[in-house]
Specification:
alpha/beta, TIM Barrel, 41% helix, globular
Length: 293
């Protein structure tokens, strides 16, 4: 397996100077990629805008996003992602998510939470049809339109799309529709069990997912999590505190456990924005950089 480690940026990467420092450090320390997540109501920049800026700042960097699908116009999203893949010369990595389930984020997304699964089921095959370059007409949960032909098309053919999620419906959907799995907040044992479900769903749908396309997004803390932060984390995601490694030795040990059960792609996210991204990535490189192969 090729072990690859990308860096997920916290809210501090929302200024040109800070994002530039982060991009330079990722490149110089040989991490795999920059990842920007979409949180509409959070103190973070829009991921597609931020990745376009980062791609222009450094033409070698791979660019990853965990972007919201529900609430978006699918044709517009297809155009945005294709355009970004063209501008970064085929270095775009895409994971689509249904969105966070706490207020006000849940309401700001603009889609009924009960319909998000149906929207993703409808939208992902539709994105693939648009990116393939044919003339597309559609009427379904993801939207209605006639005779749309997308230009420009992605450099990557196909442009792969990974999904996250750990509930049974998300696992089944991942096997049926996606090119890879990038969940968060689960144990290595739960991840291994989820992979079995995904591969069974893929086989049932007459397809397969590459063994190299199973990864994990890991939030970590450098110091013990203070009670106020722990309360916020628990309110949003009940198991988030217990599943967050504290200290870089604990982070390395957790990554090694995921590697042992066949996971090879990682996005590492400090749960608190570091005062210096360069210092943070220097420390990360010393702690886990040698795991990359």
């Amino acid at each position: 397996m090729k072990i690859r480690i990308g860096i997920g940026a916290a809210g501090a990467a929302s200024t040109p100077d800070t994002l530039g420092e982060l991009v330079s450090a990722i490149d110089e320390l040989h991490f795999d990629s920059l990842w920007l997540s979409e949180v509409l109501t959070g103190p973070v920049i829009d991921p597609l805008v931020g990745l376009a800026w980062a791609g222009a700042y450094n033409p070698r960097l791979k660019l990853g996003t965990t972007a919201l699908l529900p609430g978006r116009n699918v044709v517009r999203m297809a155009k945005q992602l294709a355009s970004l893949d063209v501008l970064c010369r085929g270095r775009l990595l895409v994971t689509l998510v249904p969105g966070l389930m706490y207020a006000p984020e849940r309401d700001a997304i603009g889609a009924d939470p009960k319909r998000r699964g149906a929207i993703i089921d409808d939208a992902l095959p539709l994105l693939r049809r648009l990116w393939a370059g044919g003339t597309v007409s559609h009427d379904g949960p993801a939207g209605s339109f006639r005779d749309v032909k997308l230009t420009p098309l992605p450099v990557q053919q196909p442009l792969e799309v990974w999904l996250g999620g750990t509930i049974p419906a998300a696992l089944e959907r991942c096997g049926r529709l996606s090119d890879g799995w990038l969940p968060s907040l689960c144990t290595p044992e739960e991840a291994a069990a989820g992979r079995v479900v995904i591969e069974e769903a893929a086989a049932k749908a007459g397809r397969s997912i590459s063994a190299e396309h199973f990864g994990m997004s890991i939030g970590y803390a450098r110091a013990p999590i203070d009670p106020a932060t722990a309360r916020v984390m628990t309110a949003r995601r009940p198991r988030s505190v217990e599943l967050t490694p504290v200290g870089l030795p604990a982070l390395r040990a957790l990554i090694e456990r995921f590697i042992a059960v066949g996971f090879s792609k990682f996005v590492l996210r400090p749960i608190a924005p570091p005062s210096s991204w360069r210092a943070e990535l220097d420390a990360l490189s010393s702690a886990v950089g040698d795991l990359q192969t």
